[in-house]
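User: I'm preparing a small set of examples for a lab meeting where we compare how different chains pack in three dimensions. I only have the primary sequence for this one, and I'd like the structure in token form so I can line it up with the others. Please keep the answer compact; I'll paste it straight into my notes.
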Amino acid sequence: MSINSSRLFQLFKYTAYALLAFNIYLFWSEEVLAAAVQFPNGVAAVDLIDAYAATIDTAAWVVLLLMFELETYVLEDHHYTPAVTWSLHGVRVLCYTFIVYAFYGYVVNLTFIYQATQLAGISDICTLVADGWSYVANLDEYAQLTTANCGSFSDAASFLRLEGIPAVVDATGLKDIRNLAWVDVINSAIWLLVVLVLEFDVWLQERNRFEGAALRISNASKFVLYSTLLLAAIFWGIKGDFVDFWDAFLWLVAFIFIELNVFEWREEIKEAELHSQISAPS
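Assistant: Understood. Below is the structure token output for the 282-residue chain.
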């Protein structure tokens, strides 16, 4: 029995999309635990983006990815009625609103990390066990201090606390957390630039103008942007944050598929034009 390579490719593509959708749950499961420490009195509506920036960001990106898939692969020219066109554009604008909102959330989280202050009079975090403190194990990861685990987190003689919450970390851990927070901000900003370039690609492609200098500039800019995103994924992998690494890797794979969709779309237009020229009466 032979396997249709085209169907296998589509299966692989939509499997990647499904895994990205599942990552919404993975980020939510991490952030809901962190929110319990950061917002002990409950998360107010105004704090939703602070508490669930990655969850909101990923959900909006998944919907946006599906919009790109529809426009660059699934829908044919005859499907683009005014209602369909306006619906696609409306959903994309909504997605971009949440994505920019999530970017703001990453910036807020970065600012919050930089508000850490020295915890005076504490040289052994085991003395904090009775007061219900947590150790900041990683960005958005807090471990409740207990008599059994308090000695395993750090052998430092001084500690810092995060602003307004009973959570401590040593200087080395705080540096790592700040680096991760910076990568979150940079990664989010780079992805915004990627979709800006991709939106321009689609706009040009719809007008049959995606060639020459525009094509070369687009390819060069995306090489730089995707390379930066790959470095971010590698950084997350080295730092041991598997969910962030896995999510970054899947997004790169997903947008490679979108790029292939645009390439295939461009080739189809060229073939149609060539066929039209051949078929035209002389």
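A couple of notes for your slides: The radius of gyration is 24 Å. The first helix runs from residue 5 to 38.

User: Perfect, thanks.
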